[in-house]
Backbone:
């Protein structure tokens, strides 16, 4: 069974960019956006704790085992492991497996270091998570030797640049620890929760999820938007133009709508939500990847949240949007977390310009097709 890389879960587009997108999509014939100054939050019902918890992996996975990727859930997690993930620095526990994308560098002047051996021994001794490491090794073996990690809501995709090939492929506990400890997304979820303030979210039992690994084609992953239990819009997730997708547009949309009707609509408890799906051409089927709540903090991909929120749930006019030809992705879209490895000042202006150009092209293409 093919295994999907995790999707982007959080909105990486800032307020200035979304304002530009709103100006463009306000003229889309599919929606009525006369009041561009309207606070977008007013278009959404208050998000509930139940809607957020419905999107926790261990909540939805049991009902979708046949439709998604084989996975192992480690839960509950020992508090020592949580403390280790949140601790500063990337000190790996003493164990046999070495991260496949790291190396040990010997400092020829280490004997003159101001750090004492006693201090290093204390720091190393404080990392005692062998029981978790042993359980991870056991689950990796069950899943065939290679996995991709994630927590309740997020995968550490923002840390994939540290790995060889920019992938989340892991073969041992140390591979997993480096990715989890390097991820701002994972740290934020552990500290603050996700989608709702922590005081509203309440206590959440954290979990480590290992998903079976294999290479997939990014072009075939799509984000689906469900309103009032009806699939109203579909967007390509990978921000790159693929010529072959144009000829497959109707086939892809048909497959995704059938998958929703047959496998998702009646099984997922929320009325409004988003989910990501992968269209596997080689086996002629669709795989479910992940769920997200219906909230503007979720990445709306090639749509503006205002048009999604104002769309009539009985209207299919939004349809499937594909990345348009002729837009220079500039590396910001196909690698959404490339900014995590560069100073903000070096990327923000380019990102704003690219995003505005992208949405403008998509909106124009949509108008021409009507």
Residues:
């Amino acid at each position: 069974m093919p295994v999907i890389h995790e999707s982007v879960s959080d909105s990486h587009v800032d307020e200035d960019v979304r304002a530009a997108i709103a100006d463009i999509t306000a003229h889309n014939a599919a929606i009525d956006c006369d009041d561009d100054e309207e606070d977008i939050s007013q278009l959404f019902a208050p998000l509930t704790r139940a809607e957020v918890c419905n999107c926790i992996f261990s909540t939805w996975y049991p009902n979708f085992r046949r439709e998604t990727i084989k996975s192992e859930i480690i839960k509950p997690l020992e508090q020592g492991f949580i403390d280790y993930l949140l601790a500063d620095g990337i000190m790996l526990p003493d164990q046999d497996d070495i991260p496949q994308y790291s190396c040990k560098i010997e400092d020829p002047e280490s004997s003159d270091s101001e750090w004492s051996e006693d201090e290093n021994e204390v720091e190393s001794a404080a990392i005692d998570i062998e029981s978790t490491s042993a359980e991870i090794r056991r689950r990796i073996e069950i899943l065939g030797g290679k996995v991709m990690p994630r927590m309740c809501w997020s995968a550490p995709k923002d840390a994939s640049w540290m790995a060889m090939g920019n992938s989340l492929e892991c073969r041992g506990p140390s591979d997993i620890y480096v990715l989890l400890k390097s991820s701002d997304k994972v740290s934020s979820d552990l500290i603050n929760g996700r989608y709702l303030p922590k005081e509203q979210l309440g206590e959440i039992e954290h979990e480590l999820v290992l998903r079976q690994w294999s290479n997939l084609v990014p072009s075939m992953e799509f984000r689906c938007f469900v309103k009032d239990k009806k699939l109203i819009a579909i967007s390509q997730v990978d921000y790159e133009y693929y010529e072959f997708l144009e000829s497959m547009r109707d086939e892809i949309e048909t497959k995704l709508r059938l998958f929703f009707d047959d496998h998702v609509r009646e099984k997922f408890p929320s009325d409004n939500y988003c989910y990501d799906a992968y269209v596997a051409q080689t086996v002629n089927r669709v795989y479910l990847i992940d769920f997200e709540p219906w909230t503007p903090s979720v990445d709306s991909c090639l749509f503006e949240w205002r048009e999604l929120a104002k769309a009539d749930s009985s209207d299919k006019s939004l349809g499937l949007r594909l990345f348009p030809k002729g837009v220079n992705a500039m590396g910001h879209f196909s690698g959404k977390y490339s900014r995590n490895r560069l100073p903000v000042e070096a990327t923000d202006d380019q990102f704003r310009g690219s995003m505005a150009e992208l949405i403008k092209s998509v909106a124009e293409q949509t108008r021409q097709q009507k």
In short: The first strand starts at residue 71 and ends at 74.
